[in-house]
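Re: Re: token formats

Sure, here are both.
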Amino acid sequence: MRPEKSICPPVHGNGYRPPTNAYRRRQGWLAAVLAAQLLGGLAVLAAPGQEVFPLYSWFLFALTPEPVRTRTELRLLELDGQAPRVPMPLESCRELVTPAQAPTVVRLARDLGRACAAQDESEVQRLRRTLEDNFVRRAARYELVELSYSPVERLHGGTEQVRKVREFKTGQP
């Protein structure tokens, strides 16, 4: 013989609830979100690089690094008649450049490299004047170099190739 179901009031709200349409509503919302995600993913194919981070970033390494990267750097060769043991990046020289000013010096080095490559002598002189008036206010000799490296080789201990572009002395053309 089966025991009869007793009809007891729920204790502290943990009683039996009749099924509702909440499950169906959740299914509908999930389907809508997945459909929007799919449409957004298809629409991003028209975007350059085919990614819109962070919403539609499909690949961990979508764009492989270029085989060789080149950046320009200003190196301090001599300051007040004394040369450091190794040419020092100008943005690292705390006697001349504060950490807050370092990004500006890096940007000036990049712009100076572009002006030298374009052989725009007036722009070179303007950038040098900006650099020397704001950062290198003492007698100094510095150079503009191009650093070329492969990101993958550099990761595994590879070295940079250094090519001297031009050398400058403060106050001289």
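Second one below.
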Amino acid sequence: MKKNTRGFSIIIALWIVLIITLIAFYILEYIIPFSRNVKGIENATKSYYLALSWQENALFFIRENGIWVWDTKVFSWTSSSAYNIISTGTTLPLEWFWTSDFDKDWSKISPSQSVQVFLPTGINWANVNIYFRVPYFSDNLEMSSTWDIVNWQILGKTDVLNADDGQRFSSWDICNSSLTWAWICPWTVLNSLKTWFLLDNTSSDIPNFYNNNCNSNNYDCILKLSIISDLIAERWIEEGKKIPYLEYRIDFDDQAIPTNIIQIEIWGLSYGFRKDFTLYYPLDSLIDAYDFTVFQ
């Protein structure tokens, strides 16, 4: 009598299918999460390069529009990326965009780092307030009594207005490290400095120079502030120590002024992954070697 083995073969086949299915599920448990991670890395990388592509667009916009980019904010976007150019403000530096190591609302001015501001038309110089402060290395740190610490100039295309001796910013114009600009720190109105001279050594004043050289076209003139003396501390144990830099703030009332450094915000988005960058584009500036010529 011949034995029937079909039933036994079906059982073996079912076991083989079951084992293969279990192995497949086991492998998929590793493959699917890994593939998701790879896809996530791909989208994160894509968002990074989408953001950087707008960096090129923003820099090209600045290059094509030149100094006129400072007239406004520019915001451009698509569904996946965007850039924002922040280039003007009524105070320098802009709030929260500082260079000081101690306070978010102040920036540095040092012997190797001057301040240069491109001037638009329509400035009311009686309302331009300039603040200087000693950084908060310690409480109540003061500058030693020294005249002519910070020089100022207004540079036009054909002439320059220079501060006269004794009419620059002195230690009396510089607050100690504990004073804040908005409440206690006294300011200096630039227009209150009374004596100036032109390149031909004749006298002038800021309103006349500005109206004759700067008030017909935006950004024809530059206000430049430069430290021309050693910064020496005066206060108990710190007395005689050198200070590496001062902090400054300039308030132009309600007049929009181009910032010394253009801020570019860019972002890229790819399937839920977003990459943000904040870039800083410095302005073209005069070399500080020019100061050597002025003081000869």
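Helices lie at 6-65, 206-213, 290-294. The longest strand covers residues 257-270.
- S.
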